[in-house]
Amino acid sequence: MHDLRRQALESHKTVSRKAKSKQSSTVSSRGNSAANSRPGSKAVSRAGSDDEGELSDETSFSVNSIDEMIAVDDSEAATEAWKLELAERIEEAIDRKRSSVMGREATLTAYIRILTSAYAEDEIRGKEMDLVTSFLKSIKAETSEKETILAMKALAMTLITSPSDAIYDAASPLLKRTISDSPSIPIKSAAIHTLGTCTYYGGASDDEILENMNFLLEIVSSDGHFISAPDEPAPVVTALEEWGFLATLIDDLSAETEDAMDAFVEQLASSDPAVQIAAGENIALLYEKSYTPPEENEVLSDSDEDVVADPDDDSATGPRLVKRYAAYRRTDQLLHTLGDLAKLNSRSLSKKDKKSIHSNFSDILNSVENPTRGPRYQNAISHETGKRYGSRMAVRIHKDGVMRIDKWWKLMRLKGLRRVLQGGFVTHYERNGVVFESLP
Fold first, then answer.
1. Burial group, residue 293, by CB count within 10 angstroms (0-12, 13-18, 19+)
2. Residue 358 near residue 338 (C-beta atoms within 8 A)
3. Pairwise CA distance, residues 376 & 69, whole Å
4. Which residue, 144, 177, 220, 308, is most buried by CB atoms nearer than 10 A?
5. Is the dihedral of CA 301, 303, 309, 314 positive or negative?
6. The model's pTM
7. pLDDT surpassing 80 at residue 104
8. Could you tell me which of 393, 433, 358 has the C-alpha nearest to residue 55?
9. CA-to-CA distance for 64 and 408, rounded, in angstroms?
């Protein structure tokens, strides 16, 4: 399993047999990008002047999630008791004979809690497919909304704990069918999130990643009609979120950008703030990904309008990016729309929603204007350095480490991981190599 995890670390996902056989795929042959090259940025010593904008420690965070928190007992991971309980819960989950709905719900809840609070790859090794088979039975039966959603969470946690080439093929058809056919909006939304996790970590090929991104885009562009959830914001939000999460796997999105941007710009007019923000973040990501570092031996001219550099970098050899394609044909109109949202003053919005829209769209506007600037970029000038503060978003790792979230692709991955790992994010970031290398 160590080798399998290493494959995931090196390629951002487990490499399936299909992916290996599709070396001619348009995705795998595309050029390098900042997101996929994962520039080294391991947790560093915390700078005293960068407290503002930090996300807090392992049990709380400020990124949005529709999933409710599953309580994590920090003391549990420090003892051996969880291993014994996990063995019992695994046995209960696999052996479904004479089980009741309430009993399965209790088993799934405990299983998720343990896998969230402790890294248990050794404990579930060799049992993954038996567990997945049981979870898929609960999803297919849809006996209760709670059991179905818990089974999806258990499936995602199993996959992040112990990646497997086989899980995507086993789970994706049922998840897509559930998204399309389930009468429950919460189940549809949970299935969308689980499909994103399975696609990312379950060995999906490059073509399958793009296929699922198109599936998610249909949900967004149809306002949910595509999956029989007309004008329901929750599935649209989750589809936007998982589209952005999967987009970080793709080097070159030039062929997909036009249709995606049209759908996202249209959603900026949504009456639901969560839809607007998720669409806006994807727009920022697409602008960021339309610029890449120079290729090896690529000759650049300082007078080239497609070459940009961070205006706050004084060095002659500072980081430069090359515009590879136009992210949107009417950036001028988009900037106007984003500017209006950054200053939106509507009586129909709550104070919390209004603050969230202002904050998020100020960031998005800043990045569209200058794609070298990531989320929470501070334009204010530091009296100490004479330069702008720059991106101030970070995740505090206990008391002595900070992970900088200075790119939109990093924010997308952080949100994707936290939707699954919840309060156990730091535990997995420290101990689970797959999680760490997803967000170095």
1. middle
2. no
3. 25
4. 220
5. positive
6. 0.81
7. yes
8. 393
9. 15
